[in-house]
Amino acid sequence: MTSRKVAGGAPSDGGVLFQEIWNCPYSMETLPSHGEDIDGGASPSVSMLSEVAARRRITIVGGSIPERSSGRLFNTCCVIGPDGQIKAKHRKLHLFEIDIPGDITFRESDTFTAGQEPTIVDTDVGRIGIGICHDIRFPELAMLYRSRGAHLICYPSAFNMSTGQLLWDLMQKSRAVDNQLFVVTCSPARDPNAESDYMIWGHSSLIGPFGEVIATAGHEEATVVGEIDHSMIQTIRDNLPLEMQRREDLYSTHWLMSGENLQATRHAPLDQMHNCNEVKMALQPWK
Ligand SMILES: NC(=O)CCC(=O)C(=O)O
């Protein structure tokens, strides 16, 4: 997936987004043997991205690779600037866990450790928030990026056949429309002959702040190219001033993500979720 910024500053040569886990099969059994030590400078995959970014003078949101660090494995995305330097590193925050008997069972947490920090980074193609695949299901993360002034959120991804058909488009459009910004996704292509049980859904896309599909792929291998006009963000926000219409008197957007009562309420069975309207949410301070 490649994109080019066309407004809101000097045009750059653009950016490229890769998919989730592009340097090896997305299989929990074999992933550990492909882990690379990014901080230790022993990552052939990131070195390759850096070389390409510097040679082409572009920003690369480098999908994700298994990152080995202090004896643990993370699902990690590096953002690389046109000088070939790593500008940011995002470790997947929400690991994908699913168990639909007879259909799909997948547990990333058997292999990966979850990251601890959201990632927002200023690049030549705008201010980018990063999420990796399953991170897209959590609207709070996208809201956080919006509140930090993100122009676009990049989600390197690998949705599957069980959830992709119903939800993939919906997720991307929801995050874009709720937050009135651009959402860019990149998925691997589907390989019908793959030996893995995990069949990829595909359909990488660039979605605009009004939910419009600017560019999209099918499930086959493709390069998707789209233009991001930053001025559209303000236009849509002026046309439809959602932020001004929030009913802070009814629901607070100052979220408290910790605290015993909140935890107890959030994790209670549905029929015990009383007093929910008393729960205040305040955004976890993010340094
Ligand atoms: N690789 C992933 O995180 C897949 C997420 C997914 O398919 C979902 O439904 O969520």
From TrEMBL:
InterPro entries: C-N_Hydrolase, C-N_Hydrolase_sf, Nit1/2_C-N_Hydrolase
Keyword Hydrolase: yes
Family annotation (Gene3D superfamilies): Carbon-nitrogen hydrolase
UniProt keyword Hydrolase present: yes
Keyword annotations of the record: Hydrolase
Domain of life: Eukaryota
CDD domains in the cross-refs: nit
GO terms (BP aspect): asparagine metabolic process; glutamine metabolic process; oxaloacetate metabolic process
Gene Ontology MF annotations: omega-amidase activity
Gene Ontology cellular-component terms listed: mitochondrion
Domain CN hydrolase: 1-230
PANTHER family: NITRILASE-RELATED, OS06G0206000 PROTEIN
Annotated protein name in UniProt: CN hydrolase domain-containing protein
Source organism (scientific name): Oryza rufipogon
Organism lineage: Eukaryota, Viridiplantae, Streptophyta, Embryophyta, Tracheophyta
